[in-house]
Design a protein that fits this description.
Blueprint lengths: L8 E5 L3 H7 L4 H22 L3 E8 L7 H25 L1 E6 L7 H14 L5 E9 L1 H14 L6 H5 L12 E4 L18 E4 L9 H12 L10
Parallel strand pairs: 1-2, 1-5, 2-4, 3-4, 5-6
Helix pairs in contact: 1-2, 2-3, 3-4
Bound molecules: farnesyl diphosphate (FPP).
Farnesyl diphosphate binds next to helix 1, helix 2, strand 2 and helix 3.
Length: about 230
Amino acid sequence: METNNLPHHVGIIMDGNGRWAKSKGKPRSYGHRVGSDNVERVVTHAFERGVKVISLYAFSSENWARPKEEVDELMRLLKVYFTKFIKKFTKKGVRLNVMGDISALTPELQKVILDGKQKTEKFTEYVLNIGMNYGGRQEIVMAVNKLIQEGKPITVESISQNLYTFDMGEPDLIIRTGGELRLSNFMLYQGAYSELYFTDVLWPEFSPKEFDLALTDYAGRKRRFGKVQ
Ligand code: FPP
């Protein structure tokens, strides 16, 4: 497989859990469970391939509007898997980070997140950054308000330095599974020059092989950042 021109930072919008479960005659929660297992599989593979930072959209600030049982199940899964990731990724030198307003999450989930961040804060080579109660617009507003409160100038750079991702750079590549062609409030500021890759494959079936197809596609892109080559 093509390994030069590898993205340093990949963002993933993991869509399609519900439709996948429905196609199997199962409840949506089953799709989220299998989707959660797939997170571990794909993230492990991506780090093995040499990607250094992975940002995932796990729960958006708009996802609260889903039926209560579904929200509860997603929260439960996030707690279980975040705990699992702490164990697994502390052995592999991965720093865990969460972007989003975690104050709205359950106290237990907040505690797990803070514990995971603290246990992995010394790691510098790999980052797993998970969006929980995350919205790109809200993040920009938060950063600008912080600058206003501190009486600092509002510039492209100062906003960037006050986003959740201030120390991990911008995604070179954003992948969206599940067939929709939009960003849905994911990393709006950081994604200004990201290459976008859309696939119809539903998240539970997005395999390491599918991830490699996205990397191969990315390797052939010409990034100009608004300039002439
Ligand atoms: C979109 O599928 C997916 C979500 C809203 C949640 C993504 C969450 C996970 C993959 C599981 C937990 C995450 C981690 C990091 C362990 P959808 O429900 O919108 O599917 P649909 O479009 O088919 O309805």
